[in-house]
Design goal:
The structure holds two protein chains of two kinds. By secondary structure, chain A is of the alpha+beta class. Helix content of chain A is 33%, strand content 39%. Chain A starts with a helix and ends with a helix. In chain B, strands 1-2 form a two-stranded antiparallel ribbon. In chain B, a hairpin with a 4-residue loop joins strand 3 and strand 4. In chain B, helix 1 runs antiparallel to helix 2 and helix 5 runs antiparallel to helix 10. The chains are: A alpha+beta, B mainly alpha.
Chain lengths: 246, 314
């Protein structure tokens, strides 16, 4: 009977969320809502926080997931053509990592894989069974393309400590940052173990006239098309008439 | 100064866009071609998604064509009758291209068919234009008495029925000919997603035998309708027209269109044809290089936007 009671207490303790036991990690963003206005040309988000006790901090920013089709070209009779396509799911639209020290000094492979720390650890799922070689080359192709567009980066940003407890990092969002719901995962790592973790949401939204135009284009597509034609026709008309006077 | 484009979802420099628009306007004023073949790849290079680049390019082209036609009408440089007949063929052709597109896609390798037919077609047209216009130019340089200019060569096609008079082009030919040309260009442009002005203009000069002075205005006339049609279809089907992008490009294009027109008025017919031949050959060469050279990355990735219709292969 007593043993059972101990077991129950132990289980309850284990089930309690981490922050209740000890506030080992607190973090927040300077801005949870990134507004894409007409003049948007990229921006920095600042993440800051405090840790309790020893450890390193890793920050993972992930954009909304969307299916991606990867195509491979092969040479057929001297001409390069797309011959194979594989759709992947689970690829975030945007991905960045920052850490207080080089990743291989503070994490082992198992930990990086479990928390998808680093571009090479992203878990993308192909639509059908593939041989390991093929899976790998298509996956690498996907990551390369995303990195070329600056949507992924294999560079690890710097999380800097101010004193023993306070930390901060700046993550740059380029102008082509995709709109949607993002998550910022902050991990406190010690001896290849995650001591504490916190996930914060972040939203990238179009606002102002840009959002109105987008809404209009999707809700009243035909009217939008007519307006587009009318703008072009009247601009051309005006220019043609002004040119006659000049 | 950056402008965030709400549909394309990228932020681009306004001055770059106005400059690109100026290139469209200049080409339109000088040659009567829309410039879609130039602008679409450049917009893609700047980071605009391919479907949006093509649709917005079509929207942009309307403006310089419109101002060109207004100027052309005053100078008598638009053959309305010819334009309407080409347009009728073109609209039927682009409608037919939809089912041809589906057929080719079922067979696979639509890209290949499109690129190869363009390389062959443009290579032939450009080569013929270049050799013809260089000959004409050299004759003039040598001061040799040019052979008496014929309005056009008499070929079997001129024996076709349904003959019509085109006073402005000084032609008396079968209406089937412009209908057929309009139809073929419509099919090609429907598949390729460009206006097809750079095929239409050589076809008007060499196949119909229209005078260069009427070709530019007539081409611009029918481009207005073809592009308006593309803009509407793309807005409704794909929501792929970016008004902010189009408006910025239009500003550049309407400023540069008169410059092109003025330069065109100063140049001789064969000089314009030499320049256009180089452009046509350049496009053919670029398409050929894409086919034959090893791409930088064999793999390409395309994010699937939920709810949007996207071409099977960009």
């Amino acid at each position: 009977m007593k043993a059972r009671l101990y077991l129950l207490a132990f289980a309850l303790l284990a089930l309690m969320p981490a922050p209740v036991r000890a506030q080992a990690l607190v973090a927040d963003l300077s801005d949870h809502l990134i507004a894409i206005t007409a003049g948007f040309a990229g921006t920095d988000v600042l993440l800051f926080g405090a840790t309790e006790g020893e450890g390193d901090v890793i920050v993972i920013l992930r954009g909304p997931e969307a299916p991606v089709v990867v195509r491979r070209k092969t040479r057929e009779v001297g001409i390069w053509v797309n011959t194979e396509r594989i759709a992947f799911s689970g690829a975030p639209a945007f991905y960045r990592v920052a850490a207080s020290r080089p990743l291989d000094e503070i994490t082992n492979a198992a930990l990086r894989a479990r928390h998808q720390i680093g571009v090479d650890q992203l878990r993308v799922v192909p639509e059908r069974e593939l041989t390991p070689t093929k899976f790998n080359s298509f996956r690498q192709g996907l990551l390369r393309n995303k990195m070329r567009e600056d949507l992924y980066s294999d560079e690890v940003g710097k999380v800097s400590f101010l004193g023993p407890r306070l930390f901060r990092t700046k993550i740059y969002l380029p102008a082509n940052v995709p709109p949607g719901s993002y998550t910022v995962e902050v991990l406190l790592v010690r001896n290849n173990q995650v001591i504490a973790a916190q996930t914060t949401p972040m939203f990238v939204n179009k606002t102002g006239i840009g959002a109105d135009v987008y809404d209009f284009a999707h809700r009243h597509a035909a009217v939008y098309g007519l307006v587009a034609v009318l703008i072009a026709v009247s601009a051309g008309w005006a220019a043609g008439t002004v040119f006659r006077r000049a | 100064m950056h402008l965030y484009l709400p549909i394309a979802e990228v932020s681009l420099d306004v001055f770059v866009l106005v400059g690109l628009g100026a290139a469209i306007g200049f080409l339109s004023g000088l040659f009567g071609v829309g410039g879609g073949f130039l602008v679409t790849p450049l917009l893609i290079f700047l980071g605009v998604p391919p479907a949006i680049a093509a649709a917005t390019g079509a929207n942009t082209v309307i403006a310089p064509s419109m101002s060109g036609v207004i100027g052309g009408l005053r100078r008598g440089g638009v053959d309305m009758r010819m334009g309407l007949i080409l347009l009728a063929g073109g609209l039927v052709g682009s409608a037919a291209s939809v089912s041809l597109f589906a057929l080719l896609r079922r067979l696979g390798q639509i890209d290949l068919v499109v690129s190869l037919s363009y390389v062959i077609l443009l290579g032939t047209i450009g080569g013929l234009m270049l050799s013809e216009s260089i000959q004409a130019w050299r004759r003039r340089q040598l001061g040799a008495a040019a052979p008496r200019r014929k309005l056009h060569k008499h070929l079997w096609i001129h024996g076709l029925p349904l003959k019509m008079r085109f006073p402005q082009s000084r032609l008396y030919i079968s209406a089937l000919l412009p209908i057929g040309i309009g139809f073929s260009v419509g099919v090609l442009s429907g598949i390729m997603g460009v206006g097809g002005g750079f095929i239409m203009v050589p076809a008007m000069i060499y196949m119909l035998g229209m005078p260069t002075s009427v070709v530019v205005g007539t081409s611009q006339f029918q481009i207005i309708f073809v592009s308006a049609n593309v803009t509407l279809l793309q807005s409704i089907g794909n929501q792929a027209v970016d008004i902010a992008l189009a408006t910025t490009l239009i500003i550049g294009s309407i400023v540069a269109a008169p410059i092109g027109t003025r330069l065109g008025a100063k140049l001789r017919g064969e000089q314009i044809r030499i320049l256009l031949a180089f452009i046509v050959l350049g496009v053919a060469l670029q398409l050929a290089l894409n086919l034959f050279l090893r791409p930088v990355d064999l793999y390409s990735a395309q994010t699937i936007v939920q709810g949007a219709m996207l071409p099977d292969d960009p």
